[in-house]
């Protein structure tokens, strides 16, 4: 139970937690004795949950479809006096699609304003915060489950988490899945490879993940294509003058596909003047 946690009405509480941090230890206490001197318990009309999904041969739907049906039902039927418990919604499909659905649900609840139900959400989607998909300025109480990291693995590179089972404010940027894998007995060489791949993907260093048997010509072609993509992503298409230009295709071809020069409005203007 979390007697010190006061949930403001219309303010969702979002928890980003490490793997195996035992968030479920608190759930069985709902409705039981409150270990506090006093407690103000409001009147609620319903409790909606997306906590765990059990597959059965009698159901033709996938686990992800069942999750969607549950979340859809709660969003269509909840009121400002309802309680919503959402645990790791968005898993079971492509990570990008899962993140988008997760963000959509959170933004929908916030858009209800004073009619937003009391909502408790836990997730491992750290990128929705680090990449700005969900603004940290939104009216959300961010929390995480505390852990203590110690070097207790097979080598100095292994950092194992010790779970403190205490709620703490603010966000965390990692689920410490490799530490959880170490505790589960996953071989070290597999964990080290997984950690390297995860790090390079987060830094968009795709070339370093490719087979080293590529010849120099193939590697150079990949570098060229990577440069094109990076220059294209750097263009701000909402800048004044970019989309309104008659020659914006010429600008893209000359400054991205061919030479990768200055991708600014000034470069666009000079291209048009010529």
Automatic annotation (TrEMBL):
DNA mismatch repair proteins mutS family domain span: 29-199
A GO biological process held by the record: mismatch repair
Domain of life: Eukaryota
Pfam families reported for this sequence: MutS_V
Family matches, as InterPro entries: DNA_mismatch_repair_MutS_C, MutS, P-loop_NTPase
SMART domains, per the entry: MUTSac
Any GO CC annotation of this UniProt entry: nucleus
Keywords: ATP-binding, DNA-binding, Nucleotide-binding
Keyword DNA-binding recorded: yes
MF annotations from Gene Ontology: ATP binding; ATP-dependent DNA damage sensor activity; mismatched DNA binding
Keyword GTP-binding: no
Record Gene3D superfamilies: P-loop containing nucleotide triphosphate hydrolases
Similarity remark: Belongs to the DNA mismatch repair MutS family.
UniProt protein name: DNA mismatch repair proteins mutS family domain-containing protein
Classification lineage: Eukaryota, Fungi, Dikarya, Basidiomycota, Pucciniomycotina
């Amino acid at each position: 139970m979390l007697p010190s946690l006061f949930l403001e009405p219309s303010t969702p509480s979002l928890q980003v937690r490490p793997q195996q941090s035992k968030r479920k230890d608190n759930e069985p206490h709902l409705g039981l004795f409150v270990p506090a001197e006093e407690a103000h318990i409001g009147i609620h009309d319903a409790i909606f949950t997306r906590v765990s999904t059990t597959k059965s041969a009698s159901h033709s739907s996938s686990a992800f479809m069942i999750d969607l049906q549950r979340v859809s039902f709660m969003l269509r039927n909840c009121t400002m006096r309802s309680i919503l418990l959402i645990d790791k919604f968005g898993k079971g499909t492509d990570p990008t699609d899962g993140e988008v659905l997760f963000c959509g649900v959170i933004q929908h609840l916030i858009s209800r304003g004073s009619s937003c139900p009391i909502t408790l959400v836990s997730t491992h989607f750290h990128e929705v915060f680090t990449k700005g998909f969900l603004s940290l300025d939104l009216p959300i109480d961010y929390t995480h489950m505390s852990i203590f990291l110690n070097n207790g693995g097979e080598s100095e590179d292994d950092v194992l988490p010790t779970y403190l089972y205490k709620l703490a404010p603010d966000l965390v940027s990692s689920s410490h899945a490799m530490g959880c894998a170490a505790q589960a007995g996953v071989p070290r060489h597999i964990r080290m490879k997984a950690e390297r791949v995860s790090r390079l993907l987060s830094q968009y260093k795709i070339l370093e993940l490719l087979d080293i048997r590529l010849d120099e010509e193939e590697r150079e072609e990949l570098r060229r294509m990577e440069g094109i993509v990076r220059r294209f992503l750097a263009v701000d298409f909402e800048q004044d003058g970019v989309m309104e230009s008659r020659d914006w295709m010429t600008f893209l071809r000359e400054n991205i596909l061919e030479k990768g020069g200055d991708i600014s409005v000034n470069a666009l203007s000079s291209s048009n003047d010529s």
